[in-house]
Amino acid sequence: MAPAFGLIASLPSSCTQETAREQGRSESPWAKVDVDGTWTLEPHGGPPKPSSNNIKVGVRCRPLNRTEKDMDDEFIIEFSENNELCISNPSPGTGEAEDSLFAFDHCYEPDSQSETVFEQMGRPLVDGLYDGFNGTIFAYGQTGSGKTYTMEGPADKRGVNVRAIARVLEAASMRSDGVSYEPLEISMLEIYNEQVRDLLRPPGAA
């Protein structure tokens, strides 16, 4: 059987000091201004991250579901400590490799928590929003691979989206630079058949 996993990509983009000032932002514990005027994100107060490598890709594998267990399917993915995973082919054809090795910025095993995914891939983006950074995080994968679980999650295991909103509100309340971030607006966009609609906006609203 094909392994079920989803890719999670985070894409922050740098901005100049002038852009940040135009938007009413100033330096914070989450960012610094380099000598050339480029703002570089420092998540969690750590060392500056190079702005030349903005795209981070992680992979999260879900556990076998009930149907797969009833069919006696086996988990064919092995993880290493250096963010690599090996996918074994139980029945390789002629000329096919038995094992395929892939490397990512982050790998999440079936027992991983959505909180860990957010802290590593989502929170640095959210913290950078108030310092002039744009950020995008999205999940990609086949149907049933766990995208909705990772991004939304059940009430007792909040996903990346819910945690990001909570962090936005928390970060806004912590700012002490005299800038007001009210009102904050949230959109939930659905793209279906090349049509875009906001799921939080009543039908017919402008």
Structural summary, described in words:
The structure is a single chain. By secondary structure, the protein is an alpha+beta fold. 23% of the residues lie in helices and 26% in strands. It has five helices and eleven strands. The strands form four sheets. It has a four-stranded mixed β-sheet with strand order 8-4-1-9. Strand 5 and strand 6 form a beta hairpin. The longest helix has 16 residues, at 114-129. It is globular and about 65 Å long.
Strand content: 25-35%
Give the SSE order as H and E letters.
Answer: EHEEEHEEEEHEHHEE
What's the total number of strands? 11
Gap between N and C termini, in Å? Answer: 47 Å
Structural class: alpha+beta
Radius of gyration: 20 Å
Low-confidence blocks of residues: 14-52
| Biggest beta-sheet profile | 4 strands, mixed
On the 0-100 scale, what is the average pLDDT?
Answer: 75
Strand order of the largest sheet: 8-4-1-9
Q: Helical element count?
A: 5
What proportion of the residues is helical, as a percent range? 10-25%
Tell me, briefly, the overall form: globular
